[in-house]
Specification:
11 strands, 8-stranded antiparallel beta barrel, 1 helix
């Protein structure tokens, strides 16, 4: 991960200098990557339909500190499910090995940090979409726009005056309008979570 690499390189130089207490102010950037699980389901008169499976979990945040240890900005959260399991109206269709399922949330975000422990928590809310790509024939489909919320909390350790690396838990919820095979209007609900490695930059 680029953020971790930059942090480690700058950290080696920092260790040779007199260490100062890092400060959270100015620009705030966070990159996080890991793994998790997600499930999107809906129910209509024909039964339950669910797409679920293990996922690659990616989160990116660009913000600025608007108060001591409080950053406001934009967050992008992505869950990619390779070969997800599919159930349509109660019928189990197994794994779609030729498919890639994507869940994306983009919106404003608030991040709160503890300067002493370098523990942080963040919440974002905004536009949510789901899409699926068929890798065998190149076809793809995209959902209507919906609403999503993402929650992230973790702990980092300073490796330079500006860079920290650590781990975090990531959880999210989405509500996406959909049309069932029977033609009814339904809302697909998404729940997911993951464990991710994070690296952040504070411009203070």
């Amino acid at each position: 991960m680029l953020g971790v690499a930059l942090a480690l390189v700058s950290g080696s130089a920092w260790a040779q200098q007199e260490q100062k207490v890092p400060q959270h102010k100015g620009l705030y950037l966070r990159f996080a990557l890991g793994g998790g699980y997600a499930s999107m389901g809906e129910t209509d008169s024909g039964g339950d339909s669910v797409i679920s499976g293990g996922a690659v979990d990616l989160d990116m945040n660009i913000s600025g500190f608007v108060a001591p240890n409080v950053a406001l900005g934009l967050d992008v959260s992505v869950m990619d499910l390779p070969g997800p399991s599919v159930r349509i109206e109660g019928m189990d269709l197994g794994s779609a090995n030729n498919a890639q399922f994507h869940l994306i949330t983009v919106g404003p975000a608030l991040t709160f940090l503890s300067p002493d422990l370098n523990v942080y928590g963040g919440v974002s809310a905004g536009l949510a979409v789901a899409s699926i790509d068929n890798t065998s024939n190149g076809m793809s489909a995209r959902s209507q726009n919906g609403f999503g919320m993402s929650f992230l909390g973790g702990k980092e350790w300073w490796v330079s005056p500006h860079w920290g690396v650590g781990v975090a838990g990531h959880f999210f919820f989405m509500a996406i309008p959909d049309t069932s095979p029977m033609g009814a209007s339904v809302t697909a609900k998404v729940l997911g979570g993951g464990l991710i490695l994070s690296s952040s930059y504070s411009g203070g």
